[in-house]
Amino acid sequence: MYTDDVDEAIMLRKKEFLTNNIATLTGNDIPTWNKFNRDIRILPDTITSQPKDTIIQETFLDVLAPEWEPYRVLYTNVEIQGNSYVLMIQLNLVESEDLIKAIVWIYLGVLVGLLIVIFFLTRFISNRLWKPFYTTLQLIDQFNLEKLVTPRFDEVNTYEFQKLNQGLNKLISESLRSFSAQKVFTQNAAHELQTPLAVLQSKLDLLMQDESLTSSQAAVVQSLYDSTSRLSRINKNLLLLAKIENNQFADTEKVNISELINEVLPYFTEQADGKKLSITTSLQTAINLLSNKGLTEILINNFILNAIRHNVEGGRIIIISAPDRLVIQNTGIEHPLDTAMLYSRFGKNATDTRNNGLGLAIAKEICDRYNWQITYQYDGLHNFSILF
Protein backbone atom coordinates (compact mmCIF):
# COMPACT_ATOMS: atom_id res chain seq x y z
CA MET A 1 0.00 0.00 0.00
CA TYR A 2 2.80 2.39 0.80
CA THR A 3 4.28 1.77 -2.73
CA ASP A 4 1.19 3.44 -4.22
CA ASP A 5 1.70 6.41 -1.92
CA VAL A 6 5.34 6.70 -3.05
CA ASP A 7 4.30 6.56 -6.72
CA GLU A 8 1.78 9.33 -6.14
CA ALA A 9 4.48 11.45 -4.51
CA ILE A 10 6.77 10.90 -7.53
CA MET A 11 4.08 12.00 -10.00
CA LEU A 12 3.38 15.07 -7.85
CA ARG A 13 7.07 16.02 -7.88
CA LYS A 14 7.17 15.61 -11.67
CA LYS A 15 4.18 17.92 -12.03
CA GLU A 16 5.72 20.53 -9.70
CA PHE A 17 9.05 20.40 -11.59
CA LEU A 18 7.43 20.85 -15.00
CA THR A 19 5.24 23.64 -13.68
CA ASN A 20 7.65 25.64 -11.53
CA ASN A 21 11.26 24.81 -12.39
CA ILE A 22 11.89 23.76 -15.97
CA ALA A 23 11.06 27.13 -17.53
CA THR A 24 13.77 28.93 -15.54
CA LEU A 25 16.55 26.35 -15.96
CA THR A 26 19.42 26.71 -18.42
CA GLY A 27 22.02 24.21 -19.46
CA ASN A 28 24.54 25.86 -17.16
CA ASP A 29 22.18 25.40 -14.17
CA ILE A 30 21.99 21.62 -14.54
CA PRO A 31 25.22 20.71 -12.62
CA THR A 32 24.21 22.99 -9.76
CA TRP A 33 20.66 21.54 -9.74
CA ASN A 34 21.95 17.98 -9.61
CA LYS A 35 24.33 18.89 -6.79
CA PHE A 36 21.57 20.15 -4.48
CA ASN A 37 18.74 17.82 -5.53
CA ARG A 38 19.50 14.22 -4.72
CA ASP A 39 16.08 12.79 -5.61
CA ILE A 40 15.33 14.88 -8.74
CA ARG A 41 18.16 14.93 -11.26
CA ILE A 42 18.55 15.99 -14.88
CA LEU A 43 20.57 13.52 -16.99
CA PRO A 44 21.72 13.50 -20.64
CA ASP A 45 19.22 11.66 -22.81
CA THR A 46 21.91 9.17 -23.85
CA ILE A 47 22.89 8.03 -20.36
CA THR A 48 20.03 5.65 -19.69
CA SER A 49 17.98 3.17 -21.64
CA GLN A 50 15.30 2.72 -18.96
CA PRO A 51 11.65 2.96 -20.05
CA LYS A 52 10.23 6.45 -19.95
CA ASP A 53 7.17 7.71 -18.09
CA THR A 54 6.89 4.44 -16.19
CA ILE A 55 7.66 4.13 -12.51
CA ILE A 56 9.97 1.21 -11.88
CA GLN A 57 11.81 -0.18 -8.87
CA GLU A 58 15.61 -0.08 -8.71
CA THR A 59 18.30 -0.53 -6.09
CA PHE A 60 20.88 2.17 -5.44
CA LEU A 61 23.72 2.62 -3.00
CA ASP A 62 22.82 5.14 -0.34
CA VAL A 63 26.11 6.92 0.36
CA LEU A 64 24.77 8.32 3.65
CA ALA A 65 23.89 4.93 5.09
CA PRO A 66 25.94 3.41 3.27
CA GLU A 67 23.88 0.45 2.06
CA TRP A 68 21.90 -0.71 -0.93
CA GLU A 69 18.30 0.36 -0.67
CA PRO A 70 15.22 0.00 -2.90
CA TYR A 71 13.89 3.04 -4.74
CA ARG A 72 10.89 3.81 -6.90
CA VAL A 73 12.17 5.66 -10.00
CA LEU A 74 10.54 7.59 -12.86
CA TYR A 75 12.40 8.47 -16.07
CA THR A 76 10.80 11.04 -18.36
CA ASN A 77 12.06 13.10 -21.32
CA VAL A 78 12.29 16.88 -20.92
CA GLU A 79 13.64 19.70 -23.10
CA ILE A 80 15.73 22.57 -21.73
CA GLN A 81 16.70 25.42 -24.11
CA GLY A 82 16.10 23.18 -27.11
CA ASN A 83 18.25 20.31 -25.79
CA SER A 84 16.85 16.90 -24.82
CA TYR A 85 17.43 15.57 -21.31
CA VAL A 86 16.08 12.81 -19.07
CA LEU A 87 14.45 13.83 -15.78
CA MET A 88 14.99 11.15 -13.12
CA ILE A 89 12.81 11.31 -9.99
CA GLN A 90 13.50 8.76 -7.23
CA LEU A 91 12.12 8.13 -3.76
CA ASN A 92 13.57 5.80 -1.15
CA LEU A 93 11.14 3.03 -0.25
CA VAL A 94 12.85 2.41 3.09
CA GLU A 95 12.46 6.02 4.17
CA SER A 96 8.84 6.02 3.04
CA GLU A 97 8.17 2.78 4.89
CA ASP A 98 9.79 4.19 8.03
CA LEU A 99 7.65 7.28 7.70
CA ILE A 100 4.49 5.22 7.35
CA LYS A 101 5.49 3.08 10.32
CA ALA A 102 6.13 6.21 12.35
CA ILE A 103 2.71 7.56 11.37
CA VAL A 104 1.09 4.24 12.29
CA TRP A 105 2.81 4.25 15.68
CA ILE A 106 1.72 7.84 16.25
CA TYR A 107 -1.86 6.92 15.40
CA LEU A 108 -1.66 3.91 17.70
CA GLY A 109 -0.22 6.05 20.48
CA VAL A 110 -2.97 8.63 20.06
CA LEU A 111 -5.59 5.86 19.96
CA VAL A 112 -4.25 4.18 23.11
CA GLY A 113 -4.01 7.53 24.87
CA LEU A 114 -7.55 8.36 23.84
CA LEU A 115 -8.80 4.99 25.09
CA ILE A 116 -7.04 5.53 28.44
CA VAL A 117 -8.56 9.00 28.78
CA ILE A 118 -12.01 7.63 27.86
CA PHE A 119 -11.59 4.77 30.37
CA PHE A 120 -10.70 7.02 33.30
CA LEU A 121 -13.27 9.64 32.30
CA THR A 122 -15.97 6.97 32.07
CA ARG A 123 -14.88 5.54 35.41
CA PHE A 124 -14.97 8.96 37.04
CA ILE A 125 -18.42 9.72 35.64
CA SER A 126 -19.65 6.22 36.56
CA ASN A 127 -18.37 6.50 40.14
CA ARG A 128 -19.97 9.89 40.53
CA LEU A 129 -23.23 8.74 38.98
CA TRP A 130 -23.45 5.50 41.00
CA LYS A 131 -22.16 6.90 44.30
CA PRO A 132 -25.71 7.26 45.78
CA PHE A 133 -26.43 3.65 44.81
CA TYR A 134 -23.31 2.31 46.53
CA THR A 135 -24.07 4.47 49.58
CA THR A 136 -27.52 2.87 49.74
CA LEU A 137 -25.97 -0.60 49.41
CA GLN A 138 -23.59 0.15 52.29
CA LEU A 139 -26.46 1.28 54.52
CA ILE A 140 -28.45 -1.85 53.68
CA ASP A 141 -25.41 -4.02 54.40
CA GLN A 142 -25.01 -2.38 57.83
CA PHE A 143 -28.73 -2.64 58.63
CA ASN A 144 -29.59 -4.94 61.53
CA LEU A 145 -33.26 -5.74 62.01
CA GLU A 146 -32.83 -6.61 65.68
CA LYS A 147 -31.50 -3.11 66.52
CA LEU A 148 -34.80 -1.57 65.34
CA VAL A 149 -32.99 1.42 63.77
CA THR A 150 -34.11 2.70 60.36
CA PRO A 151 -31.17 3.65 58.08
CA ARG A 152 -31.08 7.28 56.89
CA PHE A 153 -30.69 7.43 53.12
CA ASP A 154 -29.09 10.56 51.62
CA GLU A 155 -31.11 12.93 49.44
CA VAL A 156 -30.29 12.29 45.77
CA ASN A 157 -31.12 14.12 42.53
CA THR A 158 -31.44 11.03 40.33
CA TYR A 159 -35.10 10.04 39.98
CA GLU A 160 -34.43 6.28 39.86
CA PHE A 161 -32.34 6.39 43.05
CA GLN A 162 -35.02 8.49 44.75
CA LYS A 163 -37.61 5.82 43.99
CA LEU A 164 -35.20 3.10 45.17
CA ASN A 165 -34.58 4.83 48.51
CA GLN A 166 -38.29 5.50 48.99
CA GLY A 167 -39.10 1.84 48.31
CA LEU A 168 -36.39 0.64 50.70
CA ASN A 169 -37.57 3.05 53.41
CA LYS A 170 -41.09 1.72 53.11
CA LEU A 171 -39.95 -1.91 53.11
CA ILE A 172 -37.63 -1.46 56.11
CA SER A 173 -40.23 0.49 58.10
CA GLU A 174 -42.83 -2.24 57.56
CA SER A 175 -40.29 -4.94 58.48
CA LEU A 176 -39.34 -3.10 61.67
CA ARG A 177 -42.99 -2.70 62.67
CA SER A 178 -43.63 -6.38 62.04
CA PHE A 179 -40.51 -7.48 63.92
CA SER A 180 -41.26 -5.16 66.84
CA ALA A 181 -44.83 -6.48 67.04
CA GLN A 182 -43.51 -10.05 66.97
CA LYS A 183 -41.08 -9.31 69.82
CA VAL A 184 -43.82 -7.70 71.90
CA PHE A 185 -46.14 -10.63 71.25
CA THR A 186 -43.46 -13.18 72.22
CA GLN A 187 -42.64 -11.30 75.40
CA ASN A 188 -46.28 -10.80 76.38
CA ALA A 189 -47.19 -14.39 75.54
CA ALA A 190 -44.30 -15.70 77.63
CA HIS A 191 -45.32 -13.49 80.55
CA GLU A 192 -48.96 -14.54 80.32
CA LEU A 193 -48.02 -18.23 80.18
CA GLN A 194 -45.92 -18.12 83.34
CA THR A 195 -48.79 -18.19 85.83
CA PRO A 196 -50.94 -20.87 84.11
CA LEU A 197 -47.88 -23.09 83.69
CA ALA A 198 -46.93 -22.70 87.35
CA VAL A 199 -50.49 -23.56 88.41
CA LEU A 200 -50.60 -26.54 86.04
CA GLN A 201 -47.28 -27.88 87.34
CA SER A 202 -48.35 -27.56 90.95
CA LYS A 203 -51.66 -29.34 90.24
CA LEU A 204 -49.84 -32.14 88.42
CA ASP A 205 -47.38 -32.40 91.30
CA LEU A 206 -50.26 -32.83 93.75
CA LEU A 207 -51.92 -35.35 91.45
CA MET A 208 -48.72 -37.42 91.24
CA GLN A 209 -48.76 -37.71 95.04
CA ASP A 210 -52.25 -39.23 94.97
CA GLU A 211 -51.84 -42.86 96.09
CA SER A 212 -55.12 -43.90 94.49
CA LEU A 213 -53.67 -43.52 90.96
CA THR A 214 -53.14 -46.69 89.01
CA SER A 215 -49.79 -47.30 87.33
CA SER A 216 -51.17 -46.37 83.89
CA GLN A 217 -52.72 -43.17 85.27
CA ALA A 218 -49.46 -42.29 87.02
CA ALA A 219 -47.59 -42.77 83.73
CA VAL A 220 -49.97 -40.37 81.95
CA VAL A 221 -49.62 -37.79 84.72
CA GLN A 222 -45.81 -38.13 84.62
CA SER A 223 -45.85 -37.59 80.85
CA LEU A 224 -48.00 -34.48 81.30
CA TYR A 225 -45.66 -33.23 84.02
CA ASP A 226 -42.58 -33.73 81.80
CA SER A 227 -44.25 -31.91 78.89
CA THR A 228 -45.31 -29.07 81.17
CA SER A 229 -41.77 -28.79 82.57
CA ARG A 230 -40.38 -28.60 79.05
CA LEU A 231 -42.95 -25.97 78.10
CA SER A 232 -41.98 -23.99 81.21
CA ARG A 233 -38.30 -24.12 80.21
CA ILE A 234 -39.14 -22.91 76.70
CA ASN A 235 -41.20 -20.10 78.18
CA LYS A 236 -38.35 -19.02 80.48
CA ASN A 237 -35.85 -19.11 77.61
CA LEU A 238 -38.12 -17.05 75.36
CA LEU A 239 -38.48 -14.50 78.14
CA LEU A 240 -34.70 -14.45 78.53
CA LEU A 241 -34.22 -13.87 74.79
CA ALA A 242 -36.74 -11.04 74.87
CA LYS A 243 -34.94 -9.43 77.82
CA ILE A 244 -31.56 -9.70 76.08
CA GLU A 245 -32.95 -8.19 72.87
CA ASN A 246 -34.62 -5.39 74.84
CA ASN A 247 -31.31 -4.55 76.53
CA GLN A 248 -32.55 -5.35 80.04
CA PHE A 249 -29.08 -6.56 81.11
CA ALA A 250 -27.34 -3.19 80.76
CA ASP A 251 -25.24 -3.43 83.94
CA THR A 252 -21.63 -4.48 83.34
CA GLU A 253 -18.73 -5.36 85.60
CA LYS A 254 -15.39 -7.13 85.44
CA VAL A 255 -16.12 -10.85 85.30
CA ASN A 256 -13.36 -13.40 85.90
CA ILE A 257 -14.19 -16.22 83.47
CA SER A 258 -12.08 -18.88 85.20
CA GLU A 259 -13.57 -18.17 88.62
CA LEU A 260 -17.08 -18.20 87.16
CA ILE A 261 -16.48 -21.60 85.53
CA ASN A 262 -15.25 -23.04 88.84
CA GLU A 263 -18.38 -21.66 90.53
CA VAL A 264 -20.89 -23.22 88.13
CA LEU A 265 -19.22 -26.60 87.47
CA PRO A 266 -20.44 -28.22 90.74
CA TYR A 267 -24.05 -27.66 89.61
CA PHE A 268 -23.50 -30.06 86.70
CA THR A 269 -21.82 -32.85 88.69
CA GLU A 270 -24.99 -34.92 89.05
CA GLN A 271 -25.85 -34.70 85.34
CA ALA A 272 -22.27 -35.53 84.31
CA ASP A 273 -22.13 -38.48 86.72
CA GLY A 274 -25.40 -39.78 85.31
CA LYS A 275 -23.69 -40.26 81.92
CA LYS A 276 -20.31 -41.16 83.48
CA LEU A 277 -18.65 -38.13 81.87
CA SER A 278 -15.20 -36.87 82.81
CA ILE A 279 -14.79 -33.08 82.96
CA THR A 280 -11.26 -31.65 82.81
CA THR A 281 -10.31 -27.98 82.88
CA SER A 282 -7.29 -25.89 81.93
CA LEU A 283 -8.08 -22.41 83.18
CA GLN A 284 -5.88 -19.34 83.22
CA THR A 285 -6.62 -17.17 86.24
CA ALA A 286 -6.38 -13.52 85.18
CA ILE A 287 -9.07 -13.38 82.48
CA ASN A 288 -11.44 -10.49 83.18
CA LEU A 289 -14.21 -9.46 80.80
CA LEU A 290 -16.38 -6.37 80.98
CA SER A 291 -19.87 -7.86 80.77
CA ASN A 292 -23.02 -8.60 82.71
CA LYS A 293 -22.21 -11.39 85.16
CA GLY A 294 -25.67 -12.95 84.93
CA LEU A 295 -25.52 -13.16 81.12
CA THR A 296 -21.96 -14.50 81.20
CA GLU A 297 -23.03 -17.20 83.65
CA ILE A 298 -25.97 -18.14 81.40
CA LEU A 299 -23.57 -18.33 78.45
CA ILE A 300 -21.21 -20.72 80.25
CA ASN A 301 -24.09 -22.80 81.64
CA ASN A 302 -25.63 -23.24 78.20
CA PHE A 303 -22.37 -24.44 76.63
CA ILE A 304 -21.62 -26.87 79.48
CA LEU A 305 -25.21 -28.17 79.45
CA ASN A 306 -25.01 -28.54 75.66
CA ALA A 307 -21.77 -30.55 76.02
CA ILE A 308 -23.42 -32.86 78.59
CA ARG A 309 -26.70 -33.41 76.75
CA HIS A 310 -25.08 -34.15 73.39
CA ASN A 311 -22.36 -36.39 74.79
CA VAL A 312 -22.06 -40.16 74.78
CA GLU A 313 -22.02 -42.52 77.74
CA GLY A 314 -18.54 -42.41 79.31
CA GLY A 315 -17.51 -39.42 77.19
CA ARG A 316 -15.30 -36.42 77.90
CA ILE A 317 -15.70 -32.67 78.34
CA ILE A 318 -12.67 -30.38 78.20
CA ILE A 319 -12.88 -26.69 79.17
CA ILE A 320 -9.96 -24.40 78.28
CA SER A 321 -9.70 -20.67 78.99
CA ALA A 322 -7.15 -18.27 77.52
CA PRO A 323 -6.91 -14.45 77.50
CA ASP A 324 -8.61 -14.22 74.10
CA ARG A 325 -10.95 -17.23 74.09
CA LEU A 326 -12.94 -19.89 75.92
CA VAL A 327 -13.03 -23.38 74.39
CA ILE A 328 -15.47 -26.17 75.29
CA GLN A 329 -14.70 -29.58 73.74
CA ASN A 330 -16.81 -32.70 74.05
CA THR A 331 -17.22 -36.16 72.60
CA GLY A 332 -20.51 -36.98 70.91
CA ILE A 333 -21.86 -38.05 67.53
CA GLU A 334 -19.03 -38.96 65.19
CA HIS A 335 -19.69 -36.40 62.48
CA PRO A 336 -19.78 -32.58 62.30
CA LEU A 337 -22.93 -30.71 63.26
CA ASP A 338 -24.99 -28.76 60.74
CA THR A 339 -23.55 -25.25 61.15
CA ALA A 340 -26.44 -23.72 59.18
CA MET A 341 -28.89 -24.66 61.96
CA LEU A 342 -26.48 -24.60 64.90
CA TYR A 343 -27.53 -21.27 66.44
CA SER A 344 -31.07 -21.01 65.06
CA ARG A 345 -33.97 -20.92 67.47
CA PHE A 346 -35.54 -24.33 68.04
CA GLY A 347 -32.80 -25.94 65.94
CA LYS A 348 -32.00 -29.23 67.66
CA ASN A 349 -31.29 -32.90 67.36
CA ALA A 350 -34.55 -34.60 66.46
CA THR A 351 -33.80 -37.51 68.79
CA ASP A 352 -33.30 -35.32 71.86
CA THR A 353 -36.76 -34.62 73.25
CA ARG A 354 -35.43 -32.86 76.35
CA ASN A 355 -33.71 -30.14 74.38
CA ASN A 356 -35.85 -27.13 73.44
CA GLY A 357 -33.35 -25.88 70.85
CA LEU A 358 -32.85 -22.45 72.44
CA GLY A 359 -29.60 -22.92 74.40
CA LEU A 360 -27.15 -22.08 71.61
CA ALA A 361 -29.50 -19.41 70.23
CA ILE A 362 -29.33 -17.67 73.61
CA ALA A 363 -25.54 -18.12 73.71
CA LYS A 364 -25.26 -16.55 70.23
CA GLU A 365 -27.46 -13.62 71.28
CA ILE A 366 -25.25 -12.98 74.32
CA CYS A 367 -22.05 -13.16 72.27
CA ASP A 368 -23.47 -10.79 69.64
CA ARG A 369 -24.34 -8.33 72.39
CA TYR A 370 -20.67 -8.07 73.42
CA ASN A 371 -19.22 -8.52 69.90
CA TRP A 372 -17.77 -11.91 70.82
CA GLN A 373 -17.46 -14.49 68.08
CA ILE A 374 -18.53 -18.15 68.29
CA THR A 375 -16.76 -20.71 66.10
CA TYR A 376 -17.35 -24.43 65.72
CA GLN A 377 -15.18 -27.18 64.29
CA TYR A 378 -15.03 -30.96 64.47
CA ASP A 379 -11.75 -32.89 64.74
CA GLY A 380 -12.96 -36.02 66.51
CA LEU A 381 -14.19 -33.72 69.27
CA HIS A 382 -16.87 -31.05 68.95
CA ASN A 383 -15.07 -27.75 69.58
CA PHE A 384 -16.98 -24.58 70.48
CA SER A 385 -14.79 -21.49 70.85
CA ILE A 386 -15.85 -18.07 72.12
CA LEU A 387 -13.40 -15.43 70.89
CA PHE A 388 -13.33 -12.32 73.09
UniProtKB/TrEMBL annotation:
Annotated EC: 2.7.13.3
Catalytic activity line of the entry: ATP + protein L-histidine = ADP + protein N-phospho-L-histidine
Classification via CDD domains: HisKA (cd00082)
InterPro entries: HATPase_C_sf, HATPase_dom, His_kinase_dom, HisK_dim/P_dom, HisK_dim/P_sf, HssS/ArlS-like
Keyword Acetylation listed: no
Residue ranges occupied by any Histidine kinase domain in the UniProt entry: 188-388
Compartments reported by the entry: Cell membrane
Species of provenance: Chitinophaga cymbidii
Keywords per UniProt: ATP-binding, Cell membrane, Kinase, Membrane, Nucleotide-binding, Phosphoprotein, Transferase, Transmembrane, Transmembrane helix, Two-component regulatory system
Protein name: histidine kinase
Membrane spanning residue stretches: 102-121
Bilayer topology term: Multi-pass membrane protein
GO cellular component term of the entry, any: plasma membrane
One Gene Ontology molecular-function label: phosphorelay sensor kinase activity
